[in-house]
Specification:
Order of helices and strands: EEHHH
Bound molecules: zinc ion
Largest sheet: 2 strands, antiparallel
Number of domains: 1
Number of strands: 2
CATH class: Mainly Alpha
Strand content: 5-15%
Length: 67
């Protein structure tokens, strides 16, 4: 199921559908604050490239949060 884009809690930008799905995957499905990929990367101490790789992994695994 494709997620609806959400405002980023960190920078006021937009967390797109994949970013929202990744927030839920990494922080729990009940999260109410979402971060765009660059803010999420900064919070987790990883690179945006790492997160993009994670998204591809979850998609390849058939995770239903990713549309
Ligand atoms: Zn942000």
């Amino acid at each position: 199921m494709k997620q609806s884009p959400q405002p980023c809690y960190g920078c006021g930008g937009t967390a797109d559908s994949d970013a929202v799905a990744l927030n839920k995957k990494l922080l729990g499905e009940k999260v109410s604050k979402f971060f765009c990929l660059s803010c999420l990367a900064e919070n987790l101490g990883v690179s945006v490239e790492d997160l993009l790789a994670k998204i591809e992994e979850f998609k390849a695994a058939g995770c239903k949060l990713f549309g």
